[in-house]
Amino acid sequence: MHTNHSSKEDALTWLALKNGSEAAFEHLYDQYFPKLYNYGMRICQDKALVKDCIQNVFVELWHKRSGLSTVTSVKYYLFTCLRRRLIKELSRQTKYIHSQEPDEEYHFEVTFSHEFLLITSQISKENQERLQQAFDSLTKRQKEAVFLRFYENMDYEHIAELLSMKEVKYARTLIYRALDVLKGSIRKLATI
């Protein structure tokens, strides 16, 4: 229910932004900056670069506001813009050849939030380490897909588009395989 309200509110805010509302722009910035920062820091641990890229996304959004098309998900749109900008900047900084796959140009990190660690403080330190080791066994694309699906509640269609997959079924498969790897890793670590 909350997602529906948020989606409707985002659509109205987006429309107001397209019509030049500074208040709508500020609302989107305030609402999405922390989420974008959290996502960006998982791709690149350079705080200044992540903040600069987010700023540039919003500057471009403001400058192109009148020509913006209607979007189905503001969150997805902003995440896509940030991801592309970060990967482009990382490529430029490290002088990667453009023919390289984008997923080879960045490092996606999944760590547990402070809140998660507080909630799971009942779990023994050993189990927390097992869970972190299990996450570490995932590929960076699997980590990113799991993050987008379970931390950001993104649907499979948006995940597939964001990760440049040709079909939605590939996003589902990637996440299901990641969950299988997690289950297997946890079982294996539990027997050690």
UniProtKB/TrEMBL annotation:
Transmembrane segments: none annotated. Residues 129-178 form the RNA polymerase sigma factor 70 region 4 type domain. It comes from the Bacteria. Residues 28-95 form the RNA polymerase sigma-70 region domain. Keywords: Sigma factor, Transcription, Transcription regulation. NCBIfam families: sigma70-ECF. PANTHER family: RNA POLYMERASE ECF-TYPE SIGMA FACTO, RNA POLYMERASE SIGMA-70 FACTOR ECF SUBFAMILY. Belongs to the sigma-70 factor family. ECF subfamily. This is Sigma-70 family RNA polymerase sigma factor. It comes from Rhodocytophaga aerolata.
